[in-house]
Each structure stands twice: as structure tokens, then as C-alpha cells.
């Protein structure tokens, strides 16, 4: 979706709506709709991916003669129940988004509290001349906005559409560069681009007729009340919530598939989904040539147990340098997560088969699936030494030999007194010693995880999960899912992020979530009735992109050439010597080199209009 809202005090500018929609046509190849107010103070357009109500579900949805105009990117899963509640409304469609209109009549701006789904919404009201933008609770779908120099407001589902409007110019925000280096993504509400904001998850924006803009948080995850008091009751309750989320998210007028990776998250989703269908579920497993881990045999066990229509694809990640500029174009924002490429290749395969695919994203954040949620054993042993010895002798001496070793030793204390900072330190690519080696003088911002950790009233482990649900999940994993899936015109659905399940999972005491410090122990117990023992007892694998191997090959030389071009070094964010030192040790620094390369490609592609169809070689000169 895309639009222009012009306050009554501002002369209406000309936004290039066709260009805005063309920039996002991959998100909606099934049709385009536009609407313009008679006074040109509201213009909007929508590129549709038809999932529900194929016949009458086109957007924008215009009420009456334009009293209200609604657009919604994504899905409202509980629309059938909401339509029943709104009996008597003169429906124009049979789809999911229209329920917003009668709910807004009845509840005003609080209508979002009734929605279960993933969405970016735009509701225009003519008589007060008001625009309301709403982003779903967890930030599964994006909403970007910016002001023109005169004060009009432009919004879209992707940043590139704002630039295509002809009203917003791309200019890099150096503060956002510092945030990117610290996190591997830019925390909301900022973006890499000066003057371009993203609406944070669970927030709504209201633009009034006089140009005033208000942004309000309408939802923040809280530990649900009424959780059963025993472990078995908790297991059943969370399983029931996930099962109901799957029920809602299977709603579609086009075939639904599921990505079956061989892990617990996707396996449990497939098990629950397959039991609810009267036909075989389409499941897909992707195996990468040369990968160190092959989970396809585990995925096949699940597919066989539930009689799915299973497909195994073999893919190659060759010609990496040819993919990266195009990936930067799809992403809009820099993303240091090197799983971007394999996920894009996976979604491209799915796009040839289905329009909707269930995805296990969110399981690790709800059930503590990462090592950084637990203190490392070596850190526990180190903290057993007297503080005077650690701080006064060991760490200073270690710093003389290797500044990174001193930094790692010092971060151990944060697990107890700064859990948000601890999470950040175990995920950042550019801690202080690396920035010094790189010659980077940008400041180190306060970690986003630390800012959110203190907002949650509960156990430290639960507060850490809450911090990740507000940072790493929407800014990395969900951005990655949205861009890679929509690039292939596939709607990725994430049942683990049903807000009811999120709040229930946050209420679980750590001793039930991870007894004995075992990652995802509760989710394993939930999955035990459904999945084979071989999968339940398999170690967590995940997909590790072979970035060090990439950087030992031709990509490393190209990356060095791009990052040491005079135009690049002139920004002062790193030195040529720093880049060469990174490249000299790809085993330790390959991911860092990749992160800087994706930052530079984003700037070149979106900020300078570099071509994306000629590969990285063309940008290295």
C-alpha cells in the first residue's frame, strides 16, 4: 500500500503514485487499485496479492462516496468472527480487511485491539480529514512514512516506494549507521534514511487536518494472567493456543503450504496444520548443496507421519555476488543477517508452488532457543574468581594481548546486572575493539535490547525474551521474512506470533520454560506427542550461511574493492587498513565484512541509483 496525506494548510503536491506502486509490484502482482479525493488531499494506491476473497477483495475499500477509505497490507485472521459481530453492516466484499470499518465506527482508534493478524493499515476519514496508520502488534508487516518539506505525509509498505513518489530524497542518517553497526539492523522508529521513519510494532500514527502527527503505542506484550499452575497444564494450554493460531492462519482461498526445515518449530506447525486439513498439506524442504548440515531426513520423517505432499528441493548458493545488489534493493534497509540470501532462494522456490506458506519464525524468541539466553559455562567459571583479580589483573593483562578477549571477559558480569546489554554483546558484530581495529569513530549507541528489557515486569529470562521480541525479531527476522517472501509474491504466516500465545509464553516461569537450562525444553514437551524422537532429540542446527567460505573466495576480493573505493572511504566510517584486516581473517571477520558490504550496497542501490542487474562486479569499480 502507498499513499499521500496533505494537511489543509499545505498545497497538494504531485506524488507519482504509479511509480510508487510499480516499486512494490512484487508485493501485489494480482491487481492495482487507486483512489484520489476530489480535493487531492488524500491519494492512495494498493498492489494486491490475492489470498482471501479473490472476486471482490480489491483495495482500496471506499465507503460510500469516500467518507472513509481503507487499505490493509497483510491478513486479519479472525475476520469471520468479526464479521459475525458486525451484522447489519453493508458489506462490499467477502474479505478480511473490511471488518476494520465497522469496528472503527464502534470503537474508534481502539479497533486494533480486536484484530488478530499481521497488517499495516491505512484508514482515511474525510470529514475530520484524518489519516490513521496502524502496524500489527509484533511488527510482522511494515509501515514506513515521511514528511515532505512542505509538511505532507507520504507512507508506504516499503521505503523504495517513498523515494519513487518524487517527494522524498534518499539521504543517509549517520546516527542510523552507528545503530546498524551496533545491532546489524536499525532499531525503530529510525531507518537508515534521514527523515524516513518506520512505525514501530504495536503502534498507530494519527495525522490530523492541521498537520499534527501523533504516534501512540496501543499494545505491548505483557505476561498473560490465569496461566495454569502446573507444568502439564502449561504445556496443554500453550499447545491449544498454538493450535488455534494455526486454525486461523490456515484460512485462505488459495493453497497453503508450509516450510518444513527439520526443526521443532516447523515440525510442530506442520503436525498441527496437517491434522486440521481434509487434504494433504503441501510441505517443502530445501537442501543446499555443500551445506554442513542436512536436516531433510528429519523433515521427511514428519512429512511421512502426517501424509503431506512433500517436495525436496536442492539449491545452490553459487554466484553470490550476482544476488547481493538485488537483495539490497528488496530490503530497503541494511541487514547484516547473512541468511538473507538462502531465505530469498527458498522463497523464490515456494513462489513457484504456493502463495501462502506457514513459517516457524518466533519459536526461539518465545521458548528461549538461543545460547545467549543462558550464561556461558566459561563465564560462570570466570565469575567464580574474586572481582579484584578479574578486574585488576586478568582483564588488563588480557587487553594487552587481545582487546577482544578482555571485552569478552568483561561482558560476563552483564548477565546478572545488565541482561539487555548481555544479549546485545552476544549478538553484535562490531564491539568496541573491532571498531577500533576498523578505524570507526562513530559512537556506540545504547543497545536497543537494554532499552526494552526494563519495560517488562517479570523474571529476567522472560524480560530478555521480551526485549528480543521488540528488537531482533521485528528488525531482523521479520524484516527478512517479509522482504524475501514478498519478493517472490508469497505471504509468509507465523502462527507462533499470535499475540495470545506470545503473552502466555511470557508468563511461563523460567523453571518451566527451560528446566535445567535446557533450551526450548517446554516447546519440546509440547511437540513430544506430535513429532518423532529423532527430531525431538536432535541438537539445534539452524542455518549458518557459509560466509567465511564466501569471503575466502571471489566475494572477499569484491567486498574489499567495494569497501575501499574512495567514495566509500570518504565517509570516514572505516579505513582501508581496517577493511584489509577484516578480509585477512575471514574465519573471524567474514560476517563483519558481509555486514559492511550490505550497508554499502544499500546506500549505492537506493541512495545513488546503482544498477542491480549487473552484479557486484559492476559496483566494485
Automatic annotation (TrEMBL):
A single Gene Ontology CC term: cytosol
Pathway it works in: Amino-acid biosynthesis; L-asparagine biosynthesis; L-asparagine from L-aspartate (L-Gln route): step 1/1
Keyword set, alphabetical order: ATP-binding, Glutamine amidotransferase, Nucleotide-binding
Name the UniProt record assigns to this protein: asparagine synthase (glutamine-hydrolyzing)
Lineage: Bacteria, Pseudomonadati, Pseudomonadota, Alphaproteobacteria, Rhodospirillales
NCBIfam families tied to this protein: asn_synth_AEB
Documented EC number(s): 6.3.5.4
Residues given in the record as L-glutamine binding sites: 96
